[in-house]
Write a structure and sequence with these properties.
This protein is α+β, with helices and mostly antiparallel strands. It is built from 15 helices and 16 strands. It folds into three domains: 287 residues, no CATH class; 114 residues, no CATH class; 57 residues, Arc Repressor Mutant, subunit A (Orthogonal Bundle). The model has no long low-confidence stretch (mean pLDDT 90). Its EC number is 6.3.5.-. This is Aspartyl/glutamyl-tRNA(Asn/Gln) amidotransferase subunit B. Pfam families: GatB_N (PF02934), GatB_Yqey (PF02637).
Length: 477
């Protein structure tokens, strides 16, 4: 490989507090424009901010879950810049003394584990939202909604340890999973509560000197992050191959065209003239409080994955898929707790349940089939009451009606036929009607019996016990 790609990600995640970081205004998404505002978050003269304690708690939770050191003393700073969606002309953030530093998270790409360092986790307030009449690159005008101003954020900055766009996507997926597990953010990218800026540079393979980076903005999905980095990787390689040089700049991802576009040059690092926020006292964190928060953390994705593999014998892929979402992992544990065999439960969850959830565009929390009812359906299959094929039909009815499986089976007369006497006549009729398939089977063509089984199942409307049908066919041939 001629070049090595170096990627670092800056992720902003809105915290799930009821009120803003320095005032009592609501953080509710989707309110009428400029209604969740007050003199404090609008930065009017003479007002004083007051820190929301829940924001500090959530930031500490995030730092601990990301294996960071929690600093006993941190402070807020003013980050000075002018932009229409920033009413104070500065953003209250953290600079040299953030709440958490020196963490990491583990990812796995193509079966290979990798540790990505996390430089820092810090608290800050969100800016407002500009609504462009056109695209971010070309607009006739823009309107500003200050509802989001003052909504609490944590910014999570990675080390430049990511080497491929695929690793970047895996990092974001794991980070989102962790933040949702610890219940500090809903991480809805479509609502802007999880946003990512990506820094990417190329350097000659084997070099340890960082190349000139470009920052990519407007990445509104994990897929967009991967695609944007892939495009920028190719663009920078072409520039270098042609003897050109990379310009340090900010670029915007154009989803429709699949390209990055230059927004503004950034030849030198911007001087934000940080200075300590004089209206807020420093934050002194009690170590005992940190210990209490650490003790309250739930089982995190990696630990849960390891448990499912160790206790239930699930494959790494199955366990990774199930534990990617806390809701799905909770749902799965509940199915098994209700008596379902672990591997069968995993197959149903990743199969029929996920298929219906995707089709309905809903989450596991909204699934109309409860874990208890799904476990009941699996139990009917295990006992031979219904076949696997009939079970899928029953599941459809369960999804639509929210009834339990046993009720549906009784109402629709779907009990599996496991009485030899009730099947023998049909088996013999199928054998008599298909002499060629019988001859093929007797000649050693084992596949031929599959056709005969299918004919019996067709005549019994799928209710015959397939194992019993196989047995009777073989005996009579």
């Amino acid at each position: 490989m001629k070049y090595e790609t170096v990627i670092g990600l800056e992720v902003h995640s809105e915290l799930k507090t009821q009120s803003k970081i320095f005032c009592g205004c609501s953080t509710k998404f989707g309110s009428e424009q400029n209604t969740n505002v007050c003199p404090v978050c609008l930065g009017l003269p003479g007002v004083l901010p007051v820190i929301n304690e829940k924001v500090v708690e959530f930031a500490v939770r995030a730092g601990l879950a990301l294996n960071c050191n929690i600093l006993p003393f941190s402070k807020f700073d003013r980050k000075n810049y002018y932009y229409p969606d920033l009413p104070k002309n500065f953003q209250t953030s953290q600079y040299d003394l953030p709440i958490a530093v020196n963490g990491y998270l583990e990812i796995e790409v193509n079966g290979e584990p990798k540790r990505i360092g996390i430089t820092r986790v810090h608290m800050e307030e969100d800016a407002g939202k500009l609504v462009h009449a056109g695209t971010i690159v070309k607009s006739d005008y823009a309107l500003v909604d200050y509802n989001r101003t003052g909504v609490p954020l944590v910014e999570i900055v990675s080390e430049p340890d990511i080497r491929t766009p695929e690793e970047a996507k895996a990092y974001l997926e794991k980070l989102k999973s962790i933040l949702q597990y610890i219940d500090v953010s809903d991480c809805k990218m479509e609502e802007g509560s999880l946003r990512c800026d990506a820094n990417i540079s190329l350097r000659p393979a084997g070099s340890t000197t960082l190349g000139t980076k470009a920052e990519i903005k407007n990445l509104n999905s994990f897929r967009a992050v991967q695609r944007g980095l892939e495009y920028e990787q190719e663009r920078q390689a072409e520039v270098l191959d042609d003897g050109g040089r990379i310009i340090q700049e900010t670029r915007s991802w154009d989803e429709a065209r699949g390209v990055t576009l230059s927004l503004r040059s950034k030849e030198q690092a911007h001087d934000y003239r940080y200075f300590p926020e004089p209206d807020l006292v420093p934050i002194v964190v009690d170590p005992a409080w940190v210990d209490d928060i650490r003790a309250s953390l739930p089982e995190l994705p990696d630990a849960r994955k390891a448990r499912l593999m160790a206790n239930y014998g699930l494959s790494s892929y199955d366990a990774e898929t199930i534990t990617a979402s806390r809701e799905m992992a909770d749902y799965y544990d509940e199915i098994v707790k209700k008596g379902a065999e672990a591997k069968v439960a995993a197959n149903w969850l990743m199969g029929e349940v996920s298929k219906h959830l995707n089709a309905a565009a809903c989450s596991v929390a909204e699934c109309p089939v409860s874990p208890e009812n799904l476990a009941g359906l699996i139990s009917l299959i295990d006992k031979g009451t219904i076949s696997g094929k009939i079970a899928k039909t029953v599941f459809e009815d369960m999804w639509e009606s929210s009834k339990d499986a046993e009720t549906i089976v009784k109402e629709k007369g779907l009990l599996q036929i496991s009485d030899e006497g009730a099947i023998i006549a049909i088996v013999e009729a199928v054998i008599a009607a298909n002499p060629q398939s019988v001859a093929d089977y007797q000649a050693g063509k084992d596949r031929a019996i599959g056709f005969l089984v299918g004919q019996v199942m067709k005549q019994t409307k799928g209710r015959a016990n397939p194992d019993l049908v196989n047995k009777l066919l073989k005996e009579r041939m």
